[in-house]
């Protein structure tokens, strides 16, 4: 039987060899063309940013298009592995290694490499266990697509426990400090008390002496004997009975430096970031409050990282704050706008066009800063509900009026001499007098320069402290048990 030799497609003796070579060359050209197309449309890493903080560390990848990724949390040792699809190892990704700081609370180091064609692997070596959250954000406010990796510590820090740990010694000193108090004249009238009257009140309060001021009665604790009846002094004000135990506690102030992390806030013409200057002012005010024998402070953020609006409210309520102050720097389309202002919550809409514009920009902070909506804690979301009360708004306006009186002695002018109102999400703690302070217009070149001046920041912090004291002098705090 004659067996014919099998003709290979590349056999030159085959009668169809030329045609097959032409088809194969065409196919190769098509494959190369498709490969070139894929590489042309590969996702481009525009920027990589890292925001380390005690609360959590955020790693943000900014890209031209949304990217797909797979992640895996590993133990022994603790690692967080991320594979980025259709991504090439770019200089921006390589630079991620240098962005990990030695003092990062969560990340020890990161390794980045081309795992296989079209896949880049990032391996984060962790200092301890974490609870990662990953999500993608659409373009907003100058950002392109952002893929966010939030690394929360396995045991999240409790602001109440931290506050008690940092102020326990002060609470003990206040409880044991019983020198005789010097008598002082009470404030007359219903206006804001003078600085001298405020200081006199705080001297009495720090020495556990009520002085001749009126008292707001507090119900006795379970098991305590009912105190003897209070008596009225010559002015008709209630005074404590001689045998009743005198109570003093630390006053808790929640300071909220606006924006942070991915959210820079307003940017001045010289490049000043609002998030930077308001944090500097808040830290100065924190030092002054901590120096008071009967006050303590909790900051919603003490570094450059983003805190969602609801979490800011939640933190203030967690520490049972007596007052909440959110610190910002205003901005407007015209550089001539100037002056400081104070805002309280409104249930009926903004009280002016400026307040309405500010309400819109400030409430958009979550969109810019980046919030994982899918895993947003229900308690946090609940804090953003409109739970405001008439009493909270009333007390907030009184607090704001006291602040304006003091800020007016430092700022060149007030943008509004009255407390304005708007529906700010960050002011919706139903049981805490809350205000938002716009320290100046960062869009005004002169005021931008002042906001960067340490001397001006110091004077402003002093004014804010005096406003806090003036409010308490006119509105003595009620007894509390949870954080005393």
**Major β-sheet profile:** 6 strands, mixed
Radius of gyration, in angstroms, nearest whole number: 31 Å
Helix content: 25-40%
| CATH structural fold name of the domain at 251-474 | Aminopeptidase
| CATH 4th-level superfamily of the domain at 251-474 | Zn-dependent exopeptidases
Shape: globular
**Continuous helix count:** 13
Order of helices and strands: HEEEEHHEEEEHHEEEHEHEEHHHHEEHH
Low-confidence stretches: 1-15, 25-41, 178-190, 206-233, 235-247
In spatial order, strands of the major sheet run: 12-11-13-16-14-15
Number of strands: 16
* Structural class computed from helices and strand pairing: alpha/beta
CATH architecture of the domain at 251-474: 3-Layer(aba) Sandwich
Overall mean confidence score, pLDDT: 80
- N-to-C span: 106 Å
Characterization of this structure:
This protein has 484 residues and is α/β, with parallel strands linked by helices. Among the domains are: 45-153, Sandwich (Immunoglobulin-like), CATH 2.60.40.3500; 251-474, Aminopeptidase. The protein is 32% helix and 21% strand. It contains 13 helices and 16 strands. It has helices spanning 17-40, 91-94, 96-99, 159-176, 195-206, 274-290, 309-318, 353-363, 365-369, 378-383, 390-407, 445-451, 454-474, and strands spanning 45-51, 57-63, 69-74, 79-85, 107-116, 119-126, 130-137, 145-153, 231-232, 238-239, 251-257, 295-299, 323-330, 341-345, 420-422, 434-441. The strands form 4 sheets. Strands 12-11-13-16-14-15 form a 6-stranded mixed sheet, sandwiched between helices. It has a 4-stranded antiparallel sheet with strand order 1-2-8-7, with no helix packed on it. Strands 3-4-6-5 form a 4-stranded antiparallel sheet, with no helix packed on it. A hairpin with a 5-residue loop joins strand 9 and strand 10. Helix 5 (195-206) crosses helix 13, helix 6 (274-290) crosses helix 13 (454-474) and helix 11 (390-407) packs across helix 13 (454-474). The longest helix has 24 residues, at 17-40. Residues 1-15, 25-41, 178-190, 206-233 and 235-247 have low confidence and may be disordered.
């Amino acid at each position: 039987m004659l067996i014919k030799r099998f003709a290979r497609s590349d056999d030159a003796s085959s009668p169809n060899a030329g045609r097959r070579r032409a088809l194969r060359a065409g196919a190769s050209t098509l494959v190369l063309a498709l490969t070139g197309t894929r590489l042309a449309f590969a996702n481009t890493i525009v920027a990589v940013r890292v925001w380390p903080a005690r609360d959590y560390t955020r790693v943000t990848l900014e890209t031209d298009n949304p990217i797909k990724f797979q992640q895996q949390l590993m133990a022994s040792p603790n690692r967080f592995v991320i594979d980025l699809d259709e991504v090439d190892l770019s200089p921006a990704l390589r630079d991620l290694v240098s962005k990990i700081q030695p003092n990062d609370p969560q990340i020890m180091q990161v390794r980045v490499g081309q795992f296989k064609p079209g896949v880049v692997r990032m391996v984060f070596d962790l200092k301890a266990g974490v609870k990662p959250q990953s999500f993608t954000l659409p373009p907003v406010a100058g950002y392109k697509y952002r893929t966010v990796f939030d690394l929360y510590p396995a045991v999240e820090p409790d602001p109440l426990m931290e506050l008690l740990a940092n102020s326990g010694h002060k609470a003990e000193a206040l409880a044991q400090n019983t020198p005789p108090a010097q008598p002082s004249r009470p404030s007359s009238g219903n206006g804001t008390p003078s600085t001298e009257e405020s200081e006199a009140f705080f001297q009495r309060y720090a020495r556990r002496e009520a002085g001749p001021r009126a008292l707001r009665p507090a119900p006795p604790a379970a098991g305590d004997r009912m105190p003897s009846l209070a008596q009225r002094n010559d002015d008709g004000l209630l005074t404590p009975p001689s045998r009743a135990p005198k109570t003093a506690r630390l006053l808790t102030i929640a300071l909220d430096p606006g924006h942070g992390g991915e959210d820079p806030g307003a940017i001045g013409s010289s490049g000043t970031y609002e998030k930077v200057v308001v944090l500097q002012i808040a830290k100065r005010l924190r030092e002054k409050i901590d120096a008071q024998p009967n006050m303590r402070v909790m900051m919603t953020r003490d570094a450059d990282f983003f805190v969602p609006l609801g979490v800011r409210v939640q933190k203030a309520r967690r520490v049972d704050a007596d007052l909440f102050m959110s610190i910002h720097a205003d901005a407007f389309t015209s550089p001539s706008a100037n002056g400081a202002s104070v805002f309280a919550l409104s249930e009926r809409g903004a009280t002016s066009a400026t307040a309405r514009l500010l309400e819109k920009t400030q409430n958009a902070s979550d969109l810019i800063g980046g919030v994982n909506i899918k895993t947003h804690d229900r308690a946090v979301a609940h804090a953003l509900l409109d739970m405001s009360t008439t009493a909270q708004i009333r007390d907030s306006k009184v607090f704001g009026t006291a602040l304006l009186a003091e800020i007016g002695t430092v700022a060149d002018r007030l943008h509004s001499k009255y407390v304005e109102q708007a529906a700010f999400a960050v002011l919706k703690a139903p049981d805490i007098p809350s205000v938002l302070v716009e320290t100046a217009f960062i869009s005004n070149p002169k005021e931008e320069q002042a906001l960067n001046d340490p001397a001006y920041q110091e004077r402003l912090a002093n004014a804010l402290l005096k406003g806090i004291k003036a409010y308490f002098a006119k509105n003595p705090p009620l007894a509390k048990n949870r954080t005393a």
